[in-house]
Amino acid sequence: MAGIGILNRIKQFARSPQGQRVVAEARRAAADPRKRAQAQRLLGRFRGRH
Questions:
Q1: What is the CB-side half-sphere exposure of residue 19 using CA atoms within 13 A?
Q2: What is the sign, positive or negative, of the torsion defined by CA atoms of 33, 39, 41, 47?
Q3: Which residues of 7-44 are buried (b: 16+ CB within 10 A; e: fewer)?
Q4: CA distance linking residue 14 with residue 7, whole number of Å
Q5: Model pTM?
Q6: How far is it, in rounded angstroms, from Cα 5 to Cα 23?
Q7: Helix, strand, coil share (%) of the chain residues, nearest 5
Q8: Measured between alpha carbons, how far is residue 36 from residues 8, 11, 32, 40, 50 in Å?
Q9: pLDDT score recorded for residue 1
């Protein structure tokens, strides 16, 4: 299955230094109420298309 390869690549990225920075940045953004609301609106837009 192709999905397994993609998941492994995501896991490898998350363990890399660059991936760790992205994860830390996402956690900071999730803690900010304004950023959180912005992300919810964006996700809502994507969900509405399907």
A1: 8
A2: negative
A3: eeeeeeeeeeeeeeeeeeeeeeeeeeeeeeeeeeeeee
A4: 10
A5: 0.54
A6: 21
A7: 90, 0, 10
A8: 28, 24, 6, 6, 22
A9: 54
Separation of alpha carbons 23 and 45, rounded Å = 23
Looking at residue 4, its pLDDT comes to 80
Q: Helix or strand or coil: residue 41?
A: helix
Q: Tokens standing for 16?
A: 């890399």
With CA atoms as reference, report the closest residue to 39 among 31, 20, 49, 19: 31
Question: What is the average per-residue pLDDT within 1-16?
Answer: 87
pLDDT of residue 6: 92
Tokens of 48: 């509405």
Condensed to tens digits (0 to 9), the pLDDT of residues 20-47 reads 999 999 898 889 999 889 988 988 888 8
